[in-house]
Fold these 2 entries.
Entry 1:
Amino acid sequence: MIHVSIVSGMDGVVQITANGHAGYARSGEDIVCSAVSALMLTAAIAIERRGGKPYIRENPASTELSLVGMPAGKHYDESLIILGAVADGLRAMQPSYAQYITIREV
């Protein structure tokens, strides 16, 4: 099971953490893990390419993206939009794969 935590602040989503493995299929064939990983990686790349410096913690079973501590300004505002879009994507896939992914909103 993948456990996702979405942390929102006054301006929008400021942190997303995904822990665990879905168990939908064998390693390398698991579409749920692949979807979550693709969303998280895309967000990290998009934020960095726009000049943002998010906190990124990644290991084989966990990824965390956080804007906490990022200075306000254009990069922060764009980063909020990107993290918000990723959160929307995770929320959209969860009902179809409810036995493989949980989402906790903080």
Note: The mean pLDDT is 92.
Entry 2:
Amino acid sequence: MADARSTPSGSANGSRTTCGPLVGKPTFIIDGGAPGADLGAFIFTARRGYLGKSYREVWKKYQDDSGPIRNQHILSDSKPDVVVAFPGASGTLDMKARAREMGFRVIEAYL
């Protein structure tokens, strides 16, 4: 999932209700470990009992200044079936562009 870290509080609920109709029943959920929609995806995964992976360690390693490096690492390592991108800023735009360039399906979700 990709978004801006300024996602309003309560985004976990929005993410939880939005993901189902967008992608059907997920089998494995990946999040980037950042605040915002990533945290919402993590909560969604835990509450629903889905298998998943959080790239929190990548977030901690690279922090704010290395968004493109972090995004590339996550996409290369996880090879997702689909990227669900919530409204965001430059990091989200970078993630969507990289995902499309690598041939991954990108769904733009709106809360």
Note: The mean pLDDT is 78.
